[in-house]
Amino acid sequence: MKRRLALTAIALAVGAAASLSACSPGTASGTELVVTTFGGEWQKNFTDAVVKPFEKENNVTVKQVTLYSSDALAQLQAQKSSPQMDVVFFSGGQETVAAKDGLLAPIDPAALTNAPDLISQATAGLAGGRGPVVQITPMGLLYRTDKVSEPTSWNDPFNPDYRQHVAFTDLSNSYGTLGMLMINQARGGTIDNVTPGIDAIGQSTRAGDAIITKTSSDLQQAFAARDIWMAPYSQDYAETLRKAGQPVGFAIPKEGTTGSFITANLVAGRSNTELATKFIDYALSAGAQEKFVTGMAYSPVNTKAVVPADMQSKILAGPTLEKLVRFDPEQITGNAAAWQKQWQEQITR
User: Fold this and answer.
1) Residue span of the signal peptide, if any (predicted)?
2) Mean pLDDT, residues 51-78
């Protein structure tokens, strides 16, 4: 009896140890993925386009954690020795920093079945250990179609005809930074000298010709209740405003534009890399990309994705996307604090 009890105790101990090992930090169940999300409408649409169908097809559970890009990077850095997430989405170029810090696992293009169908911008970062671009939303000028003719230049927000009807976005918002960089470029500045852009916006706001918004919801409120007619912002949000009943158009200025490149990144040190890679590949499929178009008004990175007729005039797609300016994420990250200081000095003085 004593021998039988001893053997039972050993078996229970081994089982408990195995259970603890399976749940220990840095590992994950083979049937669960932990992925980040941007929350709100993005999460709702991404769940419908990728998460639910992927769960059903692969008999897995996808746990979503709401983290904006800078917070997601901070979490990865804090968890470096014991990562808790499998896939991280970035929209501001943070994948460059994460890859250099060894926080990401490189993805072999051969592991992505959709790689041959993607635009070159989507896979350009794989060689550097970064994840592929799964969504693109170009920057442009949002404008009230019942108040303003279609704008043609990044200088149009400074037209005296639009005084007190323009909104710029704070640099704490990545769209605000990208909009400022395009205005800066149109006024002769460079990524190493953003004074022309920041000074122009600062002078406009100090004169009472424009307001500053911080978030997407602030901008929506400005169009709905503050008589705003024009704002540098993103393609996807123009559609959000239209769905909210606002008569808003989206124009790409003649000087060209940049965009927000959303990447899906494989976290290093996790046990579910094969399943996580499959999840990323699913997000790159033509079917998922088509849902990004109709649900979020994002530009598809899969060339086989079909853009519905009613969306073709609302989004950029195809070869045009290859012409988007993509500012160096490292330069943006490295200069962010200095730009913010310069911005605050101009906006608040």
Assistant:
1) 1-22
2) 95
Can you give the C-alpha Rg of the chain in angstroms? 23
Query: Is the domain of 278 the same as that of 343?
Result: no
Scan for tokens 């037209």, then name that residue: 159
Q: What are phi and psi of 249, to 5 degrees?
A: -105, 170
- Rounded Cα–Cα distance for residues 143 and 153 (Å): 12
Average pLDDT over residues 13-30: 40
In a domain? residue 10: no
pLDDT band at 266 (very low <50, low <70, confident <90, very high): very high
Residues in CB range of 281: below 8 A, 6 or more apart:
111, 112, 113, 114
Torsion angle of C-alpha atoms 30, 283, 173, 38, degrees rounded to 10: -40
Q: What's the pLDDT tens digit per position in 244-263?
A: 999 999 999 999 999 999 99
pLDDT at 21: 36
Q: 3-class SS at 137?
A: strand
As a whole number of angstroms, the distance between CA 342 and CA 197 comes to 11
Task: Look at strands 259-266 and 87-90 and give their pairing.
Answer: antiparallel
Average pLDDT value over all residues in the chain = 90
Q: Does residue 8 register a pLDDT over 50?
A: no
User: How many angstroms separate the CA atoms of 239 and 247, rounded?
Assistant: 10
In a domain, 206, yes or no: yes
Best CA proximity match to 79, nearest among 65, 58, 93 = 65
Encoded tokens for 84: 């808790």
- Find, among 130, 138, 196, 176, the residue nearest to 325 by Cα: 138
Query: Which residue type sits at 249?
Result: G
Tally of domains in the chain: 2
Please give the residue range of the domain that contains residue 92. Answer: 28-136+260-323
Strand, helix or coil at 167? strand
Instruction: Please report, for the domain that includes residue 340, its CATH number.
Output: 3.40.190.10
Q: Look at residue 27 and tell me whether its pLDDT is greater than 80.
A: no
Phi, psi of 61 (to 5 degrees): -115, 130
